[in-house]
């Protein structure tokens, strides 16, 4: 005779892929920001080169223009890295 109880057995771990780490609010918050961050990074990486063109047309002779160009270039590289997986399943 089997003992089928309608009450769950609390000693058995979760049956799904959800673990204790998945229920951590900070991890959930970081995972929820991943999609929008990739979206924003992807489009920043697309649009930022259009800002480089006027700087290059003006010339990099001035140190402030050169610094601005290098900072924008670094931001573009970071945006490319962060946004490279956008809309890929």
Key descriptive features of the protein:
89 residues; mainly alpha; 3 helices; 61% helix; DUF8028; transmembrane; membrane
Architecture blueprint of SSEs:
Layout: H1 25-47, H2 49-58, H3 63-83
Helix pairs in contact: 1-3, 2-3
Can you tell me about this structure?
Pfam families: DUF8028. Residues 1-24 are annotated as: Disordered. Keywords: Membrane, Transmembrane, Transmembrane helix. The mean pLDDT is 80. This protein has helices spanning 25-47, 49-58, 63-83. The two termini are 48 Å apart. The radius of gyration is 24 Å and the shape is rod-shaped. It is 61% helix and 0% strand. The chain is mostly helical and 89 residues long.
Largest sheet: none
Helix fraction by DSSP (H/I, runs of at least 4): 55-70%
The mean pLDDT is 80
Order of helices and strands: HHH
Distance between the termini: 48 Å
Structural class: mainly alpha
- Gyration radius (Cα, Å) is 24 Å
Helix count from the secondary structure assignment: 3
User: What shape does the CA trace take?
Assistant: rod-shaped
Contiguous uncertain segments of 5+ residues: none
Percentage of β-strand residues: under 5%
The total count of strands amounts to: 0
């Amino acid at each position: 005779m089997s003992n089928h109880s309608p009450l769950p057995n609390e000693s058995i771990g979760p049956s799904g892929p959800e673990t204790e780490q998945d229920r951590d609010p900070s991890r959930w918050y970081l995972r929820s920001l991943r999609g929008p961050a990739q979206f924003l990074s992807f489009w920043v990486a697309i649009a930022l080169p259009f800002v480089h063109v006027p700087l290059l047309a003006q010339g990099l002779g001035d140190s402030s223009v050169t610094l601005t160009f290098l900072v924008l270039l670094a931001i573009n590289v970071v945006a490319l890295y962060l946004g490279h997986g956008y809309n890929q399943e």
